[in-house]
Amino acid sequence: MPLKPQDLIVALKLAISSPPASYADLAASLGLNASEVHTAVQRAIQAQLLQDTAHDALAKNSRLANIRIHRQNLLEFTVYGAKYAFAAETTSTTVGVPTSHSAPVFSGVFAPGSDDWVWPFATGSCKGVGLLPLHPCVPTAALADMQLYAVLALLDALRVGRARERKLALGQLPKLILGQASVESQPQALMHG
Fold this sequence. Notes:
By secondary structure, the protein is α+β, with helices and mostly antiparallel strands. Helices cover 48% and strands 13% of the residues.
């Protein structure tokens, strides 16, 4: 089963958030359905981004509590593989949710300007060059979870950013994925990192 963009989103959500009680809870937090999340988890296990630690066959594939994150594998894929596996697709200027260096995680680092990036979204807060999100669920899921928003915006900085933006993203993504930082500490860390 080839890895799909939503598989990475699910794995990242699991890596940066408190463990959800069920597939249904995880699905609701991402704007997906439970079967999509279950299938995404299975593909992420096959890709070695996640691991099912259940020891008996009945428990395997049935409980989210058995799922563990291969943080190093997830980090390596996010930093070095995702921009190639899920190449950036742009649109013309549109209204949307700020991403890449235009997102709140970069607040105070880059001045807003004509080269802002946004995920197209009808009720978005700003205008910029459209960057199609990894999956249609991204704008809504990101707005509901600032940690997820930060990780996805930093990933987009790797996908479309210039050298400085990529460097800052490379400095912060490992801290978030490995659980060594939170979103609240990011703007200052970006400026001094």
